[in-house]
Design the sequence.
């Protein structure tokens, strides 16, 4: 008995450290060291040139009195609160649609076509959207003109900018979540649905009692991935509006972090913004773990 | 009734797909036309030319951006796959003091948003004098996501494989190279595609650390020229196409394997 157990136990093998060494260095240098630095510098008034002097919680205090920063937090939450539910719902519906047609050519085409935006750079696609909007002869301009909307006014209009940015982001991101949903939908055995059909269940009932419950943990995961992604989104705002129009109408956390650090050289202040972002994200991760009841999913 | 709902949903999905394709179709058609000031879309195939592509490739800075982007992404993916699979192998098959704790410390990095570390990293890179070099663009590409995905694939390899290998006197290094890596090929491809597109398309970090054409990547270069007043749309679209094509081609050739390994052990158990 003892012998068998000994055989089963893995023996201590110090060569394991060698295997993890390169990754360990990457983690230390590119993740933990920056956080330490950022933690330290955020208590100073460092501006990338002079020597930093200690200001205590000064940066954090002025952060929460800074109207622009508060606005950027509010805007970030507006984007997260609209984009994430929309893209998740849309991604789910399309995934169900494709999954029912997974062997037909139409299903295959839609699946692959919708994944295309996830392969492209958000920044580049935004450049094209900008041209489509600003160019009076573009197909999009003609289409919007039908509804009496002047497309070249959208990027400068405080009322239209949000619906425009939100729908563009949803169009760019939905495909990715659709493909993720599909991967998990394909795992539901067909026999579940066959049994339901024999019992006389309608399509809506199957959706309600089979698909939706089985997709619960996938949905939480996808919501979480979406929230993380939207929180850290930078490219779209940078290309489309730069935080404008006007006084920071679409300023987000990432955009204000970029502007304070690299445009106004208030590096200590920028790092304080970064730390607020980290705290927010860590908090959300804990929430998500709670929701999933410690069930680990394999995607992250 | 069923037919009607079917028709309605199909129409809606197709409209959505068309909207998603709109920027790409526009990009493609514009890039094939000599469109200087009047950019009326023409579907007349006989007028299409590759002259825009010839022109952008004759620009030295464009060639440099393209070369930089390719170099960074290819080397970055190889670097990612190498160190992530090594770490994943050690976490599954080797037992060393503190291994679980180290795994947790690594895992926690998934909660850290990379953009939040951008400012301190920029200071570090400046201190080390690595600004405008390829090092800061390539070295930070790997992330824990790679280790997590690859680890799961290694866990799923049947134990018997390793037992028979060790009976035959295979060294760990040989087991890793000759058994593990070939078996987990699908997940390596998935991780490769993920990290290739990610590094190819990243804008924020390259924007900060590369200021000269010698290291500028394609998205950074394009973002810089699009702000100009007199933009030649045909040329811009041809350049945008060239930015889109590499990840697209990688996906076209590899899509059978993509996501093949991701759900393996997810909801099934």
Sequence:
């Amino acid at each position: 008995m003892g012998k068998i157990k000994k055989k089963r136990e893995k023996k201590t093998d110090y060569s394991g450290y060698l295997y993890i060494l390169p990754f360990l260095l990457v983690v230390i240098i590119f993740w933990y060291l920056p956080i330490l630095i950022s933690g330290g510098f955020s208590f100073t008034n460092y501006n990338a040139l002079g020597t930093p002097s200690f200001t205590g919680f000064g940066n954090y205090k002025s952060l929460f009195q800074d109207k622009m920063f508060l606005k950027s937090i509010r805007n970030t939450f507006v984007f997260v609160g609209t984009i994430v539910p929309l893209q998740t719902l849309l991604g789910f519906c399309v995934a169900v649609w494709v999954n029912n047609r997974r062997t037909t050519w139409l299903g295959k085409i839609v699946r692959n076509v919708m994944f295309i935006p996830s392969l492209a750079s958000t920044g580049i696609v935004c450049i094209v959207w900008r041209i489509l909007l600003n160019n009076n002869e573009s197909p999009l301009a003609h289409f919007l003109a039908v509804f009496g909307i002047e497309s070249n006014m959208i990027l400068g209009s405080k009322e239209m900018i949000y619906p425009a940015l939100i729908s563009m982001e949803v169009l760019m991101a939905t495909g990715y979540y659709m493909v993720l949903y599909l991967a998990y939908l394909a795992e539901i055995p067909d026999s579940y649905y066959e049994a339901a059909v024999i019992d006389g269940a309608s399509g809506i009932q199957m959706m309600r009692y089979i698909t939706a419950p089985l997709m619960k943990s996938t949905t939480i995961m996808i919501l979480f991935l979406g929230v993380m992604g939207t929180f850290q989104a930078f490219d779209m705002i940078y290309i489309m509006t730069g935080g404008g129009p006007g006084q920071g109408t679409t300023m987000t956390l990432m955009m204000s972090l970029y502007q304070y650090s690299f445009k106004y050289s208030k590096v200590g202040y920028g790092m304080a913004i970064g730390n607020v972002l980290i705290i927010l994200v860590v908090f959300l991760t804990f929430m998500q773990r709670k929701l999933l009841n410690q069930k680990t999913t394999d995607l992250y | 009734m069923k037919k009607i709902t079917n028709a309605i949903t199909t129409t809606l999905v197709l409209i959505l797909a068309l909207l998603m394709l709109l920027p790409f179709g526009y990009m493609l058609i514009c890039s094939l036309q000599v469109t200087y000031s009047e950019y009326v879309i023409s579907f007349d195939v006989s007028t299409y030319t590759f002259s825009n592509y010839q022109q952008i490739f004759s620009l030295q800075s464009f060639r440099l951006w393209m070369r930089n982007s390719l170099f960074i992404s290819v080397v970055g993916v190889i670097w990612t796959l190498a160190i992530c699979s090594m770490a994943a192998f050690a976490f599954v098959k080797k037992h060393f003091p503190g291994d679980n704790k180290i795994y947790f410390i690594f895992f926690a990095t998934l909660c850290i948003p990379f953009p939040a570390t951008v400012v301190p990293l920029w200071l570090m890179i400046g201190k080390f004098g690595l600004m405008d070099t390829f090092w800061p663009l390539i070295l930070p590409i790997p992330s824990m996501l790679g280790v997590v995905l690859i680890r799961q694939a290694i866990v799923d390899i049947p134990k018997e494989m390793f037992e028979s290998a060790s009976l035959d006197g295979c060294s760990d290094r040989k087991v890793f190279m000759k058994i593990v890596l070939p078996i987990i090929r699908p997940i390596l491809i998935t991780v490769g595609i993920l990290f290739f597109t990610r590094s190819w398309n990243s804008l924020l970090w390259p924007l900060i650390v590369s200021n000269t054409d010698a290291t500028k990547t394609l998205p950074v270069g394009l973002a810089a020229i699009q702000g100009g007043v007199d933009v030649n749309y045909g040329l811009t679209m041809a350049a945008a196409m060239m930015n889109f094509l590499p990840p697209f081609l990688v996906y076209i050739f590899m899509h059978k394997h993509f996501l093949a390994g991701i759900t393996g052990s997810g909801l099934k158990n």
User: Anything to note?
Assistant: Confidence is low (pLDDT under 50) at residues 1-8, 296-300 of chain A. The CA atoms of residues 93 and 178 of chain A lie 8 Å apart. Chain A has 14 helices and no strands.
